[in-house]
């Protein structure tokens, strides 16, 4: 559900992790260095993201490499679509109004 995704992303550290993983897959160690946080703290946030289906991990040697999963983000995009359409129509209406009334 998109609202669950919003709740998970409302936490700033989890949002930063998602933004990092949007650019590239990363190990826990890389995320620790990027976020300048302890490994247990990063792992806690990754567990929440994993439980929400937003990330998955694959083992590579002794590391786990995390990546984003598209499903929750596609659901969020679908949930936001009517709001984008509403704003788009409103902005189109404003543009027409401004064009008619210089």
Task: Just give the CATH class.
Answer: Mainly Alpha
- Mean of all residue-level pLDDT scores: 91
| CATH architecture assignment | Orthogonal Bundle
CATH topology: Arc Repressor Mutant, subunit A
Query: What is the tally of beta strands?
Result: 3
Helix content: over 70%
Distance between the termini: 45 Å
Number of domains: 1
Radius of gyration over C-alpha positions, nearest whole angstrom: 19 Å
General form: elongated
- The strands making up the biggest β-sheet line up spatially as 1-3-2
Describe the main β-sheet briefly. Answer: 3 strands, antiparallel
Uncertain residue ranges: none
Number of helices: 5
Q: What would you call the structural class?
A: alpha+beta
CATH superfamily: Winged helix-like DNA-binding domain superfamily/Winged helix DNA-binding domain
Characterise this structure.
The chain has 102 residues and is of the alpha+beta class. It has five helices and three strands; from the N terminus they run ααβααββα. Strands 1-3-2 form a three-stranded antiparallel sheet. α1 packs across α5.
Summarize the structure.
By secondary structure, the protein is α+β, with helices and mostly antiparallel strands.
Question: What is the fold's blueprint, element by element?
Answer:
Layout (H helix, E strand, L loop, with lengths): L1 H8 L2 H12 L2 E2 H8 L3 H13 L3 E6 L2 E6 L1 H31 L2
Antiparallel strand pairs: 1-3, 2-3
Helix pairs in contact: 1-5
């Amino acid at each position: 559900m998109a609202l669950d995704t919003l709740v998970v992303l409302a936490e700033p550290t989890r949002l930063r992790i998602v933004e990092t993983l949007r650019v590239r897959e990363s190990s826990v160690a890389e995320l620790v260095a990027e976020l300048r946080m302890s490994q247990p703290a990063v792992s806690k946030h990754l567990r929440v993201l994993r439980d929400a289906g937003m990330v998955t991990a694959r083992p590579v040697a002794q590391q786990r490499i995390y990546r984003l999963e598209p499903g929750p983000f596609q659901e969020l995009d679908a949930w936001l679509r009517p709001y984008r359409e509403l704003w788009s129509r409103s902005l189109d209406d404003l543009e027409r109004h401004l064009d008619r009334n210089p």
